[in-house]
Amino acid sequence: MRGVRGTKLIGAIVVSVIALGSGIALAAQATSENTAATTDERVELIDQRTETSKTFQLADGARELQVFETPINYRDEAGG
Q1: What strands, in cross-sheet order, belong to the sheet with 42-44?
Q2: Is the sign of the CA dihedral 3, 8, 11, 17 positive or negative?
Q3: Which regions in the chain score pLDDT beneath 50?
Q4: What string of DSSP letters covers 15-34?
């Protein structure tokens, strides 16, 4: 009786470890896909810049406008 109980316990532990490992792998994959979608699929439309804003073209055709309280796009005395 003792050997059967030990075998069942080991089997349950192995199944739990496999299920846990699969969940971690799936979560890591989903996170990396989301990161790529938010960082690589937008392009700044430089000709749309203003002193206090940036405009981006998104992959789905929409545009994203970022507006700032203080000037971010300007040239200093050195021209940079």
Answers
A1: 42-44, 53-58, 63-67
A2: negative
A3: 25-38
A4: HHHHHHHHHHHHHHHHHHHH
